[in-house]
Please model this.
Amino acid sequence: MPIVLIVLAAMFEFGALMFQWNMTVKATQIGARLAAVSTPLVGDVAYDATMSGDFGTIIEGEPVPPGTPSISCGADGPACDPPAAMMRLFTGGDGICGEVSENSVIGMCDVAPFLGIENVKVTYQRSGLGYVGRPFGQISTVTVEVVDQTFDFFLLDSLIPALGNIPIPAHPAAITSEDLNDCKDSC
Model:
C-alpha cells in the first residue's frame, strides 16, 4: 500500500507540475499578443531610438537596414515605462487577476494566477520587415517570457524544501508587432 500511495502522489504532483507549465506557456502567449497591439512598454522614445537609431541618411520608403537591435523591460532589466502598461498586460483590461469580466481583455495572471508581475520580461527586437518611415514605426518582434518563476508543488514542498526552488522552464512567446498603438480611433 505505501508504494501505491507514493506512486499516486508522484503522478498527482507531476500532473500539477505539467498543468502549471502549460498555464505559464499560455500566459506568455496572451502577453505577447497584448504587447504586439499595445504602445511599447519600454516607452516610445526608447523604442524609437532603438528601432531606428542606425537609419542615418536612409531615404524614407527604403527597406529597413540589416541588424536586429533590441530593447527589454521587466524582469532582469529596467522597469517598464509606463508601469500601468505592464499592469494592463499582466492583469488584462479589468485590473484584477483571476476574474475576467464580460467585456474585458484577458491578462496573463487571469490564465496563470500564480505568476508574479516581477517575473515577466518583454523584449522588442527589430524584425527587418517593412520600410523606413512606416506609419506607427518599425515592425518589431515582441517577445514575452516568464523568468525566475518556480513550480508550486502540493505535497513535496513541505516534505522536501529544496524542491520549492525548481524553476519553470522559460518558453518565450514571440509575435510580430502590429501598429503598437493603444488607440482604437484617433489619439
Remarks:
- The first strand starts at residue 70 and ends at 74.
